[in-house]
Amino acid sequence: MKRGFAFIIFIILFLSACSTPEKNSSVESTPTDVSTQQQNQNSWPPTNSGPWDGKIVLATSGDGVAFTSGETLVEQAGVPNLLLTSDGRLIAVYQYFSFDDETWFDVIAYSVSTDNGKTWTETQKLDIQELPESVGDKHAMDPTLVETDEGGLRLYFTYKSSDEAYVHLNSAYASDGNIASSFIYEEGERPDIGKNMLDPAVVYFDGLWHHYTWDMDSDVNYHSTSQDGVNFELQDNIELPMDFLGEVVPADGGLRFYGTGQGGVVSAYSEDGYSWEMEEGSRMQGADPGVAQLSDGSYIMLYTSMNFNA
Question: What single-letter DSSP state applies at residue 5?
Fold first, then answer.
C-alpha cells in the first residue's frame, strides 16, 4: 500500500491542476460534499485546502545525506526543482499559487540565485509558447529543468491536451539558456502507461537522458530513457518502498534520487540508473524535494512543507 503523505501530496496536486478530476477507486470518500469541494476549488482565492497551502523551504547539507532546514523561500507554492547551470546560476522552478493575481494562480514560476542560494530573485512566471490547447483553463504543472550541452534550458512538465486521455510527460525548450525567455513546446514520443503520469524527474547520465516518476497505487516507479531528451522509451519498472516524487542528481559516480516516503524526504542510490537501493534514514521531514550540488561540493534542497490549517 502506498505511503500516506505522498498520496495526499498527489491528490491535492492532481485535483487542483489536472482536467476535471476523475474518480479513483482507491480513494475513500470523505465527509466533504463533492459539489461544494469542486465549487471551492474553482473559486479564487480558493476556500478549501490544497497545494496553495504549501510552502517551499530551503535546507542545506555538506554531504547530501544530513540536511539542516532553513528559511522559507516561497509561500503558496510546491513541487520545487533545482538546477545549477554551467555559468553558476541556481534556478528554482515550482508551481505557484498567487492570492494577489488570479493570472498567477497555479502557474509554473521561477526564482534565481547567483550566490549559491543565499539570496533569490522575486517569483517570476515562466512562459511556455505553442502549448496545445487543454480542456478548460488548465495549466502545465510539476516542472523539472535541465541544461543541455548546447547551453539551452529544457523544461519537463505534466500536461494533457484536449485530445488526450491522460496527463503525461511534456517538454519545452529555450535555446538561449535564459530562464526569462519563452520556452517553445516540443512534440515527441513520450512514455504511455495507460493512466496519468505526473511529476517528472530527468537527468543526463551515462550517455542517456533518464526520466523517472512514481505510481500512486503501488510501489512501482516508472523509468524511461532518451537519446535526445525529447523522445522517450519505457524501461523496466523500479520497485522500492519510496516514491520517485522529487529530483534525481549525479552523486559518487552514479545517481541519487531524493524522493518521498514514510520518513518524509528519503533517498535511493543507483550505479547505473536502472537498479536502485534505498539509503538509510530520512533526509528531511517534508515531501517532493528539489536538490542540487553546489560547486564547493555541498548540497542545497528545496522541499514542500504543507500546512492545511493555514
Answer: H
CATH code where residue 94 lies: 2.115.10.20
DSSP string, 108-150: EEEEEESSTTSS-PPPEE--EESPPP-SSS---EEEEEEE-TT
Q: Which domain holds residue 211?
A: 4-306
If one counts the domains in the chain, the total is: 1
Does residue 111 contact residue 121 with C-beta atoms inside 8 Å? Answer: yes
Q: Per-residue pLDDT for the chain (310 aa), expressed as one digit of tens each?
A: 344 444 444 444 444 444 333 333 332 322 333 333 343 456 788 889 999 999 999 999 999 999 999 999 999 999 999 999 999 999 999 999 999 999 999 999 999 999 999 999 999 999 999 999 987 667 899 999 999 999 999 999 999 999 999 999 999 999 999 999 999 999 999 999 999 999 999 999 999 999 999 998 888 999 999 999 999 999 999 999 999 999 999 999 999 999 999 989 999 999 999 999 999 999 999 999 999 999 999 999 999 997 543 3
